[in-house]
Automatic annotation (TrEMBL):
Protein name: MmcQ/YjbR family DNA-binding protein
Keyword DNA-binding tagged: yes
Annotated transmembrane regions: none
Segments forming a coiled coil: none
Xref: Gene3D superfamilies: 3.90.1150.30
This protein's record includes keyword DNA-binding: yes
Any one Gene Ontology molecular-function term assigned to this protein's record: DNA binding
SUPFAM superfamilies named in the record: YjbR-like
InterPro entries: YjbR (IPR007351), YjbR-like_sf (IPR038056), YjbR/MT2646/Rv2570-like (IPR058532)
Highest taxon in the source lineage: Bacteria
One Pfam assignment: YjbR
Keywords assigned by UniProt, alphabetized: DNA-binding
Species name: Anaerosacchariphilus polymeriproducens
Length: 122
């Protein structure tokens, strides 16, 4: 994997919780109980892709720029994008995608839940 910092970066977002769905072989990153990222394992147990939510126009633009960014694996292909973790997407692009994914999901939460997360002590 070319992004050893990814787990720590995803967890650095306020209110993020992490779990592992055994049946999917996905490590999920959630805010307010909603997933904003998933790191998916292959049959050998190695992390192979991270799937992130983006505005459809942003996702389409990035897919055209980088061959290692594709429509979301097992997700809505319009809103979710998968990044090959053995690829060559620049770190700053992947960090920006993760930030945007977090904020899209966070902003979709109720105002009450947003305020609880903002005011929580991590």
């Amino acid at each position: 994997m070319n992004y050893p910092w990814l787990d720590k970066f995803l967890l650095s977002h306020k209110g993020t919780k992490k779990d592992f769905k055994v049946e999917w072989q996905w490590t999920r990153y959630l805010v307010g109980g909603k997933m904003f990222a998933a790191i998916c394992k292959n049959n050998n147990g190695n992390d192979t892709i991270v799937t992130l939510k983006l505005d459809p126009l942003d996702g389409d633009f990035l897919r055209k720029q980088f061959e290692d960014i594709n429509p979301g694996y097992y997700m809505n292909k319009k809103h979710w994008n998968s990044v090959n973790l053995d690829g060559d997407v620049p770190d700053e692009i992947l960090k920006d995608m993760a930030d945007k994914s977090y904020h899209l999901v966070f902003n979709g939460l109720s105002k009450k839940l947003q305020n609880e997360i903002k005011n929580s002590i991590d």
